Amino acid sequence: MSYPVGAEVFDEAFEADGSVRPVYEDLFSRIDEGALATLHDSVQKDLAVKGVEFGPPHSRAPFAVDAIPRLIPAADWAALERGLIQRVKALNAFLGDAYGERRAVAAGVIREELISEAMHYEPQLAEAGVPVQAEVAGPDLVRGADGEFSVIEDNLRTPSGLT
């Protein structure tokens, strides 16, 4: 993968000196570099043939997928999992309130029009009298150049990972 000149990124598989990170050592010891390149090309071509794209209708782009998924050690995942579960619970609590009592509006936490005029707000759901929550959530998890994880986006409508 190429990055913009001067971009500071965290490479999941390789240390800054080019050595393989411990979590990837066993995997990379079993994979031929040429086979990996062939696999990568095959995955990208298959997605293109199937018409898999990403982005809004006016600016669709090919949906790129790494041939080898990100590996996250169990200890790192345990902490991430707790935080992601908490985050999705908070988002569902907000959805429930936005389509329900609107206690956050009454408390002055958020302005009414930020909810009622939101692009994807569905007034009929508020009138239906049923709890509103995201049944599937897809937080976009990235690592900064410092190696720390962050969520850059919460996808509650149709997470792209469902493809």
Sketch the major β-sheet.
2 strands, antiparallel
Strand content: 5-15%
- Mean pLDDT over the full residue set: 87
Number of extended strands: 4
Distance between the termini: 21 Å
Low-confidence stretches: 1-6
- SS field, number of helical segments: 6
The geometry reads as: elongated
Q: Largest sheet, order of strands side by side?
A: 1-2
What is Rg? 20 Å
Succession of helices and strands: HHEEHHHHEE
| Class based on secondary structure composition and strand pairing | alpha+beta
Q: Which percent bin holds the helix content?
A: 25-40%
Structural write-up:
The protein has a domain at 74-162. It has helices spanning 22-29, 33-49, 74-98, 103-106, 112-116, 123-128, and strands at residues 53-54, 61-62, 138-143, 149-155. A two-stranded antiparallel ribbon has the order 1-2. The longest helix is centred in the middle third of the chain and has 25 residues, at 74-98. By secondary structure, the protein is α+β, with helices and mostly antiparallel strands. It is 40% helix and 10% strand. Mean pLDDT is 87; it is low at 1-6.
Question: What structural keywords apply?
Answer:
single chain; 163 residues; alpha+beta; two-stranded antiparallel ribbon; 4 strands; 10% strand; elongated; disordered N terminus
